[in-house]
Amino acid sequence: MNSYKAIVIGGSAGSFQPVTKILSSLREKFDMPIFVCLHRLKHIRSGYVEALSIKTKCSIVEPFDKDKIKTGTVYLAPSNYHMLIEIDNTISLSTEKPVNHSRPAIDLLFETASYAYNDKLIGIILSGANSDGAAGLRVIQERGGVAIVQDPNDAQIKTMPKEALKETNTENIFSLNQIIDYIKQKI
């Protein structure tokens, strides 16, 4: 049986409420880190952590460069920074050029997490309006991790889930409630 070590969640337009619902469903203590990359306007630097913290018992932080990764913490990619997971159990932040017109880029988070956690990683793509995350989810799957895509019919914006389904051969096409049930079973 595979015991997972981390979860990565990516989304764009229409994904803030699903992320809020996912995090609010979790118990206060859990044995792995959760990394969240949401596209947002680069000039909006605050409010996301506060808004998520109101709805959940989880510890939610926007990490600093070289922060040590802790279990039981939700890491939210800071506005206008790529969030990368290093194999030495730290987070790196980067202002390199946008990927898929996005910084933070879901693909970079997912790809770097897949190298740090290999087959012990769960990757989740939610609602969004572009293809960011699709290639990263494919890499997670290729490295033995679990690829989950929000059912396009359940997503507010279908583009991101549809692109992720084109890139992966995952059978894990779940409604938001099924995603929540799956996560609660694994953490």
Q: Mean pLDDT, as a whole number?
A: 92
Count the DSSP helices.
Answer: 6
CATH arch. level architecture: 3-Layer(aba) Sandwich
- What string, H for helix and E for strand, traces the elements in order? EHEHEEEEHEHEHEH
Strand order of the largest sheet: 3-4-2-1-7-8-9
N-end to C-end Cα span: 14 Å
Oligomer: single chain
The major beta sheet can be summarized as:
7 strands, parallel
For the secondary structure, the number of strands is 9
Report the principal-axis shape. Answer: globular
- Helix share bin: 25-40%
The CATH topology annotation reads as: Rossmann fold
Entry summary:
With 187 residues, the protein is α/β, with parallel strands linked by helices. It has helices at residues 16-24, 48-55, 106-117, 134-142, 159-167, 176-186; strands at 6-11, 34-38, 59-61, 73-76, 82-85, 91-94, 121-125, 146-150, 173-174.
Describe the protein.
The protein has six helices and nine strands, in the order βαβαββββαβαβαβα. It has 187 residues and is an alpha/beta fold. The strands form two sheets. It has a seven-stranded parallel sheet with strand order 3-4-2-1-7-8-9, sandwiched between helices. The protein has a two-stranded antiparallel sheet with strand order 5-6. A hairpin with a 5-residue loop joins strand 5 and strand 6. The chain starts with 5 loop residues before the first strand and ends with a helix. The model has no long low-confidence stretch (mean pLDDT 92).
Labels describing this entry:
two-stranded antiparallel ribbon, 187 residues, alpha/beta, Rossmann fold, 7-stranded parallel β-sheet, 6 helices
